[in-house]
Design brief:
- Chain A is an all-beta fold.
- Chain A is built from no helices and eleven strands.
- In chain A, strands 2, 4, 5, 6, 9, 10 and 11 form a seven-stranded mixed sheet that branches. Chain A has a four-stranded antiparallel sheet with strand order 1-3-8-7, with no helix packed on it.
- Chain B has about 120 residues and is mainly β.
- In chain B, about 0% of the residues lie in helices and about 55% in strands.
- Chain B is globular, with a radius of gyration of 14 Å.
- The chains are: A mainly beta (about 110), B mainly beta (about 120).
- The interface of A and B includes residues 42, 45, 48, 59 and 104 of A.
Chain lengths: ~110, ~120
């Protein structure tokens, strides 16, 4: 069974701090993704990566960056946290093939920026 | 970019009845359409998916239909049970010979099964 593990379930940070959210998957998946989930807005794609050191912007990348130094680990970085980044953050991974493959999600990190 | 519309936002049905959730997408190049179920406080879990070379797919009480011409796809749940109560999300993506593409999600449908 695929396991996607996010380092923190709940996190509270202050405005202006640099925040790191970590995600690790154990299924040797090439693709990894970061989404944020807000009530009434569904899930929105922030960044994704299809290989080590590769990254692509999603629909809402402003204020975020990512790092993928190892295949199993994908980090989301809030360069200078702001209150509008208070949200649930979900990491996902999938196989890389020609056809669409299911994305497997972690339990999420609920981040509060004060 | 892709835009996915999902309706209704809330759906209440009697236990044992059927439930239908509908989604439309904007990008005709999209070719992969998964459905996720999310229970309160839990991660989204894939319940069924369909690719654009198929018009319908079933898995026990769950089925998905795809109409590429009209650019819409639907989730059908028959003989609903209390454990079907959750938020359901549709999504769309375009996969090519390259690597990944993120999913564009609908805003979700809160399905309530009345006993």
């Amino acid at each position: 069974d695929v396991k996607v593990t996010q380092s923190s379930r709940y996190l509270v940070k202050r405005t202006g701090e640099k925040v790191f959210l970590e995600c690790v998957q154990d299924m040797d998946h090439e693709n990894m993704f970061w989404y944020r989930q807000d009530p009434g807005l569904g899930l929105r794609l922030i960044y994704f990566s299809y290989d080590v050191k590769m990254k692509e912007k999603g629909d809402i990348p402003e204020g975020y960056s990512v790092s993928r130094e190892k295949k199993e680990r994908f980090s989301l970085i809030l360069e200078s946290a702001s209150t509008n980044q208070t949200s649930m953050y979900l990491c996902a991974s999938s196989l890389r093939t020609r056809l669409g493959q299911p994305q497997h999600f972690g339990d999420g990190t609920r981040l509060s920026i004060l | 970019g892709e835009n996915v519309e999902q309706h209704p936002s809330t759906l209440s049905v009697q236990e044992g009845d059927s439930a239908v959730i509908k989604c439309t997408y904007s990008d005709s190049a999209s070719n992969y359409f998964p459905w996720y179920k999310q229970e309160l406080g839990k991660r989204p879990q894939l319940i069924i998916d369909i690719r654009s070379n198929v018009g319908e797919k079933k898995d026990q009480r769950i089925a998905v239909t795809l109409n590429k011409t009209a650019k819409h796809f639907s989730l059908h749940i028959t003989e609903t049970q209390p454990e079907d109560s959750a938020v359901y999300f549709c999504a769309a993506s375009m996969y090519s010979g390259g690597g990944a593409d993120g999913l564009t999600f609908g805003k979700g449908t809160h399905l309530i099964i009345q006993p």
